[in-house]
Amino acid sequence: MPGGRLTEEDRRLIAAGLAEGLGYAELGRRLDRPASTIMREVTRNGGPDNYQADRAQQDTSTRARRNNQPQPPAPAPTDSSYGRDPKAVQEFTESFTDLLVQQGLPRMEARVMACLHITDSGALSAADLVQRLRVSPASISHAVGFLEQQGMLLRRRDPGERRERYVIDDEIWLRNLLASLQMNNALIAASRQAATLLGPTTPAGDRFDKSAELLTFVSEALQQAMEKWREHLTTRAKP
Asked: Which ranges carry the Transposase IS30-like HTH domain (predicted)?
């Protein structure tokens, strides 16, 4: 980032510029900073109408001291009765998390998924996830809500238990594919509607028509793959 971290003088210039009615882009040019940096600074410290340089400087220093405090070591995995190398498991967890992020999952959701995957039970409570990932309960709640919508985990409460557990099972990716299939079919319907509306012989209509054809091929392939997988599981289960 040009210029490094914002200084106390930078914050005074921001406050003065806001009082003049300057926008984030102009303030960024004056301070040689991206407009997004100025926007984050102002938003985090009271907004355009309540931004105060002294208070922003003090709050930033407080946050920096808090973040520099040493973090407690991450707890060891509970499922450690198979002679696994904890370091190797940790390294794999990190690489698997990165892979899920590359596939499109937000990082927090990817961390939850990786944590559940390496647990032999495939089930953890919110408190377990908070402890293992060292994040806030709100972060876990948001991530779990997203993953549940995608069909990537389930909520369960065992008889006599008060706390819910978040569970993955052997059909996790099958449910995820089913959710993808449903979304794909919705896109097919929308594309066909657009082609009719715009006219299939027009450039825009033809584009939507071709999109519908491609998505139809994808849906058919996904459906066939799921059917073959179910047949494979049936054959595999036979003695």
From this structure: 5-45
pLDDT of residue 62: 78
| DSSP result, 177-200 | HHHHHHHHHHHHHHHHHHHHHH-T
Cα 75 versus chain centre, distance:
23
How far apart CA 213 and CA 191 sit, in angstroms, is 9
Determine the longest span between alpha carbons in the chain, in angstroms. 79
Q: Which residues contact 239 (CB under 8 A, 6 or more apart)?
A: none
Cβ-contact 134, 74 below 8 angstroms: yes
How are the residues of the chain apportioned to helix, strand and coil, as percentages rounded to the nearest 5? Answer: 65, 5, 30
Instruction: Give the Cβ contact number of residue 147 at 10 Å.
Output: 24
Residue 167, strand partner residues: 123, 154
pLDDT of 14 strictly over 90 = yes
Question: How far apart are the C-alpha atoms of 34 and 25, rounded to whole Å?
Answer: 8
> Distance (Å, rounded) from C-alpha 152 to C-alpha 102?
17
Q: What is the CA radius of gyration of the chain?
A: 25
**Residue 69, pLDDT score:** 57
Cite the beta strand spans of the chain per DSSP E: 123-125, 154-156, 165-167
